[in-house]
Amino acid sequence: MDDLTAVRELHDDVPELTDDARAAARARLQRAVLQERRPRALSRRLVLRATAAATATAAVAGGVLLATDADGPRMTALSAAEVLQKAAVRARAARSGVPVPRNDQYFYTRTFITRTYDKDGRTRTWTDESWTSVDGSKPSRREEHGKVHNDPPLAENEVMAPPTEYAALAKWPTDPDRLLERLRMDTREDDRMAFMNACQFFVVPRVMPPGLEAAIFEAVAKIPGIRTDRDSVDALGRRGVAVSYPKFDFSFVFDARTCAYLGMRSKGSSVTYHGRKAEHHDWYHEVSGRLELAVVDRIGQRP
What we know:
This protein is α+β, with helices and mostly antiparallel strands and 303 residues long. Helix content is 29%, strand content 31%.
């Protein structure tokens, strides 16, 4: 009997594997291959079991992420689109506990930011607190990198895009295809615009109606060219995976094990102007993690 026949017969004798079980077997096979330099040999039965499960798993397009521990995989082999799909599932199951805001209230946020400079690895951190008018009709107090900004109300002809009002957000589609069209701002195949608008939902605080956050992740998963960064760490030091769009300065960061949304990562620099010419220097990467989001009645009030 050859090995392929043995694999087929073995697969016929066992129940259909779940996706998680297949991923775990594939990870064990990967680990076994990496450990073959060691003197301890694996049994033929173990190799056949791992091979059968791995053979039953479809190939994954795009970048592959593998991370294992003694109890199984911390993350299965996922493309950027798959990370976003899992994030969407988690978003639908999660309950924020934040009440529906009235337009005359404020979003209170407390955010931790870590900035790491590319040149020397130097790190700076901030914990910012902000009070943002829900509909923009009132002044807001925004703290950014430790500096307080008192923002005036929106002018009569100004609007937030995407909106922060709950009633306006409730009109946005939760079907991923329709939402992607909306994110593209009717500019046809403008994927950069779509990714930028998706990021804006998380840069500016808002309470999203049921299904909208999940739909955003699903819509971004449909954007061609999205990719993963396997070695991202969020502002609180949690191991994550970043999902980004080529040549765009913002990325989503998701938990490397659960795919829960953790925060945003961005790239920036200091700028010195020489007349009309801008000189960029001190490039850095920055990650932010929201510690708290609540709805309060006035500036200065904390939950």
